[in-house]
Every structure is written in structure tokens, then in C-alpha cells.
Amino acid sequence: GGCCRDNTNTNSDDMDVTISEDNQQQGGAGGGCCGGSGGGGHSHGHHHAPSPAPAPAPPASNGGGCCGGSSRQSAPSSSSSGGGCCQSEGNNNNNKADDDVAMPDTHVTSTDQVKIIYTVGDKCSNILHALSRLGGSSEAIFRDVVPALVGLVSERSEGLRASTRIHLNVISVLSSVADIIQAWNENSSLMNYACDNTLPKLVEILLSHVNNGAGLSSECLEQVIRASGDIISGADVASQSGMVSRLLASPLGKIAPDSNSNIKQLLPIFTSIISQLKSGALVQPDVLLSMLFPLSLGASDYSLLAAKCFASIINKIPEGDIVDKYADLIVAETTPNKATSSFVGCLVWTTKALLLRGHALAPKLGGILTYLAGSSSNEISSAASSGFDVVLADDLLILTKRSGATIRVLTKQK
User: Which one of 79, 100, 183, 333 counts the least CB within 10 Å of its CB?
Assistant: First the structure.
């Protein structure tokens, strides 16, 4: 039984984490999710065609389940391997016969059977693939598997850097977390749990990592962004609001154009969370806008991300002084000396945000965009002209119904 067991005799630099309790195993292996020492499981190693269920004798044969394993026995009886998708080796010195070792190809439902042994090497991806399937099978297992995997990243956070030996394994762990969360994205109870527990822990791990001056690979960042987007979009307003309050109280809530490059690495996490919030979860919108507006105008790789997040807030908050204030600030930046490509990006996305909600200021900003399209600067003219494509195109990520955007019905014009 068990979820994930591999060769327990390995002497490599392993990363071990146990979920719930270990089961004592005797004789042949039962089914379960992921094959390992002495028996069945779900996913690991080389693929083998299914074998028939073993007969009662000889003793200590390995059973079916989702995947088989091979067994070495001290008794002079023959050994057999169960069917399934993978094979793993183990030593079995128990001569007790086990007549009922075959299990159907189903998910494990008892968290007491779940044991993960994270092995450095090419075995990792198969084990984590099995865990992704397992975590998507039961709410109770979700609440065990996801925190355990996140804890594993915390213990070996040096793997968040691209130059480390375990970097690929850490990417795989984060990918498994994102896969499991994606499978439960429509379950508001689990997404609230993840928003209150999993996402804050992931942000804490990344903050601790970059505060130590360590680099963060784009692959790891991508997986965390993927997980955070699904968590936030599936959580309710109360959990979203709690996450915003945590972000604003953290160093992420104080990022400025002159902040060091280490903390700016995490700006994509911040913007991916904020841009997916429902309008009722936008606590302290003026604080968020006052932080994002200068970032969107800055000459950095993150200015467009900040501009999109800024626009998502402008789209969702109620009409009033705050919207008017930032529209006026954008107008004030529209001078030949001040206009930059970053400013044009902010103008484009703010125009789109106001247009989608049917705001009266949208035509005014659209007029500014038209004016900049005739700029003597080729850079500004090109950016403004391309901006019309952005304004009129459908957006699938930021300004969508799922992300809580205010969208009024618009008739496409020729």
C-alpha cells in the first residue's frame, strides 16, 4: 500500500517528507498509487505490460494495483512482478504468503497510506506525476499532499536557483502543486484553504529566498504564478481580502521603482494575485494604485506587468475620485518630453480598462492615444499605433469575467 514508495536503499541526497502516518508493510506489496519497495503503486520507472494476479503459492509475490514492483526473496521460492505502469526494486525477506495482494486501479482514499519519498534523480518526475493524480482524487489528500510538497520546497529552497543540482526537482515539485490546485480550481472550499495557507507559505518561501540575495529561476516563478492564479480566481472575497492584506504588509507591498532587483523578481507574483481579485477584495485600492502607477511608468522589464495590474484595479473599483485622479495623472504625462514607451503601455491598458466598463473617460484617453500615434518619435508612434490592437482585442488573462473585471457588452465596429 501507500502512495509513493521508491527504492528505500538509496544513498543519494534524498528529500523525504512523510504525510500522515507510515504503514507497516509485510509480505508482498499491495496496490496504492505509486510503486515502491516490495510492491504495487501507481507510477514509477519503466513501463511493463500487466501480468495476471499471482497465485497463492509461491509466497510473497507482488500484487497488482496501478503499478508493479519486483521482489527479491530470501526463501527459495520464485519471484513475480505485478502488472502496471512502473517497476521499482526492493528487498523482501518475509516468507509469509499473501493471497490477496491485487488491488484495482483506483486512487488511494486513506491518507494514512500516503508516504512520499522524494528521490533525487530521474525517478522524481514519475513520482510527482503520481502525486499530482493522487492530490486531485480526494479533498482530504489535497490537504495533506499540497502542504507537504510546499514544505519540501521550503526545506530545499536553494533549488529555486537555476544553477543548483536539485533545481529541476524543485521545478517538478512546484509544477505538481500547480497541477493539483488546477484540478480543484472549481472547489471554493479548497481554494479558500489554499488562499489562507498554501499561497502565503509560497510567498513567504520566495521572499526569504530573494532577501538572502539568491536568484530565482523563471521556471520556478512561472509555476508559482500558475498556482497563485488558480488559487485566487477560485477563492471567495474574504480569503482574497486576507491575502491582499498580507501582501501589503510584506515587502512586496512596498516595491518601488528604486527597489533592489532581488525583490523586484517577485513583482510578477504580486501582479498575478492582484489582477485576479474580485472588486470586493480590493482593500486599500488607492494604496495599490499609488504603488503600481510609478512602477508602470518606470523603464524596467516589469513596467508592463505593473501597467496591466494597475488597469485591472481601475476597471474594478467604483467610479469616483480615485479613478478620476489617475486619469488626470495620465493626461498630465502626455507631453512630448514626458511620453515614453512605458507611459504608452500604461495609457493603452488604462484606456482598455475604462472602455470595457463603459467609463466616460475612455474616449478622452483614446484621443490621447491617437495623438501619440502621430508623434515624431518612431518609438512612441509605433507603441501607440500597436496599442489600438491591444485596446480592441479580447484579453484572456487580466480583464476577464473570471478575474472579476467589469465588462459591459460592446459591439465590435468595422
Answer: 100
| Residue entry with cell 480566481 | 233
User: Residue 93's Cα: distance from chain center in Å?
Assistant: 42
Question: For 164-213, what is each residue's pLDDT tens digit?
Answer: 888 888 998 999 999 999 999 999 999 999 999 999 999 999 999 998 88
| Alpha carbons 243 and 321: distance in angstroms, whole number | 26
Rounded to an integer, what distance in angstroms lies between the CA atom of residue 198 and that of residue 271? 18
Alpha carbon distance 224, 171 (integer Å):
10
Concatenated DSSP letters for 92-123?
Answer: E------S-----S-----GGG-EEEE-SSTT
- Is the CB of residue 281 less than 8 Å from the CB of residue 267? no
Half-sphere exposure of 197 (CA within 13 A, CB side): 16
Q: What pLDDT digit, counting tens, does each position of 377-402 carry?
A: 888 899 999 999 999 888 777 888 87
